[in-house]
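Possible regression after last week's pipeline update?

I re-ran a chain I had predicted before the update to compare outputs. Posting the input and the new output here so someone can diff against the archived version. Not blocking, just want to make sure nothing changed silently.
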Amino acid sequence: MRTRFFALTAALIFAFAQVPDAYARGTGAAAASEWSSVRALTPGRNIAVRLKDGDRLTGRFDSATDQNISFTHDGRKVSLTRESVGNVKVSLGRNRLKGALGLGTNYETVYEAQ
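New output (post-update):
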C-alpha cells in the first residue's frame, strides 16, 4: 500500500513538474515583446488578447499590421490598436490533464506590451 502511494505521488509530482513548451523553445521576454511575432501569426490560429484595461477577448486571428490586430470574436470582426493591447497569446491546444482539473487551454505569450 505504501509503495503504491509513493508511486502515485511521484507520478503526480513528475507530471506537474514538466517544463512548458515555451521555455523549451527559448521564447522569453525578449521574443514576447516584439510586435513582429504577432504579424507573423497564421490566419485562423486561436488567440487570446488581453487589453490594457483588463478585458480579455478570445477568437481566431485574421491579420495584423504595424498599428493594429484583427480577429474574429464570437462571430464578430474585432480590430484593436496596438496601443490598447496588453498581450497576445496563442493557443497551444487543450491539455487533457489540465482540462480534467478545470484549467482549460494552454496559451503561449506571443506579445507583451512594455
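Follow-up from reviewer: compared with the archived run. The two ends are 52 Å apart (CA to CA). Marking as no regression found.
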